[in-house]
Write a structure and sequence with these properties.
heterodimer; A: seven-stranded mixed β-sheet; two-stranded antiparallel ribbon; elongated; B: six-stranded antiparallel β-sheet; about 25% helix; globular
Chain lengths: ~725, ~100
């Protein structure tokens, strides 16, 4: 049987329980993506119900449908452009008046609408009773009552949807804004009609109201379609605005908003009973401590410390198991595959690249679990408020602090964690500076270099790198704010939702959808990049172009061993020295080695040679690869962070100034390809390229200055 | 102190009609940043642009609405309970909202 396709959109205020209802409706049949060109999460899901296939769009949570934020514009545009069959507006029953404001704006749009009075149990406990039938009649809308957090309400909502689809259309209620405004609306409508300006499917009345409200989006749309003809209308609108402002003492958007609340109050009068007065005492007491200006910050830091411990200390174990598993897989593949090239591709390219990304998964699970708990419990809003004053000084906002802290562990979850910032500008600046929060993968590089050049005070040197990273982040945040991301940092108003116990189901769904997205990424883009990086370090192959006849040398020591002149240990040592030399030559011969030579003039002014250039390129794959690459280039077998012979080789070949400078460069240029793939996913190709370009230039400029100035003193 | 005054650049575009309202000049009104816990107030007006006004109205900050302060912070940030919801309002924002004690 063929299912009839319908689309419904869920709208609602932030904290109205909309997400819970969406999860109840669609379960795991969800898809999370981004709206094209913006970094607002787009969630969709599918339900099959009684012969219908219902596509559910979860609109961003908004207070209204003005042009204030990206979220509001998106919500409105979806309703207008994608024209869902029905909009389901989720209303917090314990706060009807404010929640119905959005409902009224939806009514004005003329879209088929169902109201869901959510959390009816909470409202009843607070002593608020609603006469649903009466209110439904007054508003001219079907109303469903649910208890969102308990998983109920799904059936009722779907039933109401089917009923509305089949039933006849109710008569549309029109909201009257009072005589003065209505007169001006008529004037604007006639001006629109006189100039024959299209109002699309929106209706001239709605457009006239939006023009009076000076809705920038709508003005632009009308201007674009009407061109010069708009100027007459504009004059009428401006006259109307100044007339209303003079007569009524307030600007039209405020008067219109008051009229909407008036309509709501009228409808609630008689159908709504408030037995007791508002009670917020419990959360007031908690806020006296959690949002306190003295205790608030230490408490927040303590919670962040716990999150960090959860993500990295506890996450360490599953990460180790995964690493162990991938190592075993590499060994297994090495043993069963005969062909050298295919083996190298699978082991070094695919398993090495994708495995390196998959191993972060436990960290990401923990991080999003922690964030989901903080958000669902209501604490996140308090944290944002507590940190806001400090973060504002550097051009970010309170919540930015969370991804920035996470960045010290790993930049990948940090970029993903930036989603908690609603404002696009804040989010992008936070992501762009997160690079300088030195991640865990860079630490082994610092340990090696600091150990090689400054063994006596390696700890202080490494600490200085971290501090420089934080300082650069602060400077860059200010700089980006003043230049590229000027403007629109939302002035701070944030709702403090009542504290609530997060539900396991909600937290798990939140966590799962983000983790799944990350794994999908690793399976696609990162696979391709890993193979490309592998090719870069493998081709062209050296063939027989080694500088010495290493094969002969190996045969020679083999003979020595067979004749009993050297022991098996000597033989192994000798052989691995020769093999390390071969690996070094192969790398130098490959495209990456050549690029290193080619780029050497660029890196010269920083004091780097071509080997460091190659290591820098390898660091794009993952920063810890820098060490093994340097090891290969210096023909040191099994180079690890603590390799003494590598330290000696570095010490012999570079000055401490160059060593320190290389650490700085490693700190400042963009983290790794996994991080860049996530960056692109979160912010788009353009922003990713900007991130790569500016961090590289910055790394170069800083290293240049440090080397050139440092040289004067040494 | 605002970093390089970026807020002002955004919301600084005042309109001619502000001159009509000019609530700052009205004696007896104060800004939300001066409101204190333990008293009741009503919103008198919002000194923002069209867009900001619409947004604040949608959040429940409409002229005539009563509210109380549940937390006050040095510098002017306020925790406000209005229309049954608690909001944290930053100083910059609180200074734009004119209120009257009742």
């Amino acid at each position: 049987m063929k299912l009839r396709e319908v689309t419904i959109a869920l709208s609602g205020n932030p904290n109205s329980g909309k997400t819970t209802i969406f999860n109840n409706l669609t379960g795991l049949h969800q898809h999370v993506g981004n709206y094209p060109g913006v970094t607002v999460e787009k969630k969709t899901g599918i339900i099959d119900y009684k012969g219908y296939r219902i596509n559910v769009i979860d609109l961003p949570g908004t207070y209204g449908l003005t042009a204030y934020s990206q979220e509001e514009i998106i919500a409105r545009n979806i309703i207008i452009n994608e024209a869902p069959d029905i909009v389901v507006d989720i209303v917090d029953s314990s706060n009807l008046e404010r929640n119905l404001y959005l409902a009224v704006q939806l009514m004005e749009l003329g879209t088929p609408l169902i109201l869901v009075f959510n959390m009816a149990d909470v409202a009843l406990k607070m002593g608020r009773k609603v006469n649903i039938n009466q209110l439904s009649g007054l508003l001219g809308l079907p109303i469903v009552q649910t208890v969102g957090s308990k998983g109920a309400g799904k059936e009722e909502i779907l039933k109401a949807v089917i009923e509305l689809l089949g039933g006849e259309k109710r008569k549309k209620k029109e909201i009257k804004y009072g005589e003065e405004i209505e007169n001006e609306i008529l004037k604007i409508i006639s001006a629109l009609e006189k100039e024959e300006i299209q109002t699309f499917n929106l209706g001239p009345r709605w457009v006239a109201v939006k023009l009076l409200e000076q809705d920038t989006e709508i003005i632009n749309v009308i201007k674009e379609s009407a061109g010069d003809r708009y100027s007459e209308v504009e004059k009428t609108v401006n006259d109307s605005i100044s007339h209303i402002t003079t007569v009524l003492g307030s600007t039209p958007e405020v008067i219109i908003a008051n009229a909407r609340y008036g309509f709501i109050k009228g409808a609630l009068l008689g159908s709504y009973e408030e037995v007791e007065s508002v009670k917020l005492n419990g959360s007031d007491k908690a806020d006296r401590i959690l949002a306190n200006r003295i205790f608030g910050i230490p408490i927040f830091l303590l919670i962040m410390w716990l999150v960090f411990q959860l993500v990295f200390s506890l996450g360490k174990y599953p990460v180790e198991w995964l690493e162990f598993g991938f190592e075993k897989l590499s060994v297994f593949l090495t043993n069963i595959i005969q062909n050298d090239l295919i083996r190298s591709l699978l082991v070094d390219g695919v398993v090495g690249g994708v495995g390196g990304v998959i191993t972060f998964t436990p960290n990401i699970i923990m991080l999003f679990f922690a964030i989901a708990v903080l958000e669902d419990s209501g604490y996140m809003a308090r944290a944002a408020f507590v940190m806001d004053r400090i973060m504002h000084k550097i051009g970010l906002q309170g919540k930015s602090f969370i991804p920035l802290i996470i960045g010290f562990g790993c930049t990948v979850p940090a970029y993903m964690g930036s989603r908690i910032l609603e404002n696009k500008q804040d989010r992008l600046v936070t992501m762009h500076v997160n690079t300088f929060m030195s991640c865990g993968a860079r630490l082994p590089v610092y340990i090696l270099f600091a150990g090689a050049f400054f063994p006596a005070y390696a700890g202080n040197v490494i600490f200085s790198i971290y501090i420089i990273g934080v300082l650069v982040a602060i400077i860059m945040a200010k700089l980006l704010r003043a230049t590229r991301f000027r403007g629109e940092s939302g002035p701070f108003v944030i709702e403090f939702p009542a504290y609530r116990m997060p539900t396991l189901k909600g937290v798990l769904i939140h966590t799962w959808e983000r983790v799944w997205e990350y794994i999908k990424k690793a399976g696609t883009v990162i696979l391709v990049i890993s193979i490309a990086m592998w090719a870069l370090f493998t081709y062209p192959m050296i063939g027989n172009n080694y500088s010495q006849d290493y094969e002969a040398q190996i045969e020679e020591i083999e003979l020595l061993y067979q004749s009993g002149e050297i022991t098996i240990d000597d033989y192994d040592n000798e052989k691995s020295v020769i093999e390390a030399k071969m690996a070094g030559e192969r790398l130098a011969y490959s495209a990456a080695g050549r690029i290193g030579h080619f780029l050497e003039p660029v890196f010269r002014p920083l004091g780097f040679d071509w080997k460091m250039a190659v290591a820098t390129i390898a660091g794009i794959a993952a920063k810890e690869v820098i060490i093994s690459t340097m090891g290969t280039l210096y023909s040191i077998e099994d180079a690890e962070g603590q390799s003494e012979s590598l330290k000696v080789a570095l010490y012999d070949n570079y000055t401490p100034l160059v060593g320190y400078n290389f650490m700085l460069f490693t700190l400042l240029y963009f983290p790794c390809l996994a991080a860049m793939a996530v960056f692109r996913k979160e912010a788009g190709t353009k922003e990713m390229l900007f991130q790569m370009g500016y961090t590289l230039s910055l790394a170069w400029a800083v290293s240049f200055m440090v080397f050139q100035i440092g040289r004067l003193f040494s | 102190m605002r970093p390089w005054g970026f807020r002002r650049r955004v919301f600084g575009h005042r309109r001619f009609s502000d001159a009509v309202r000019a609530p700052e000049s009205n004696i007896g009104y104060l800004s939300m940043a001066d409101a204190v816990p333990g008293k009741k107030y009503t919103v008198v007006g919002i000194n923002g642009g069209y867009i900001l006004n619409s947004r604040l109205c949608a959040m429940g900050f409409v002229p005539g609405e009563t509210f109380y302060i549940s937390g006050a912070f040095r510098g002017g940030s306020r925790c406000v309970v209005i229309k049954g919801t608690k909001f944290a309002v930053g100083r910059g924002m609180a200074e734009r909202i004119q209120v009257r004690e009742i």
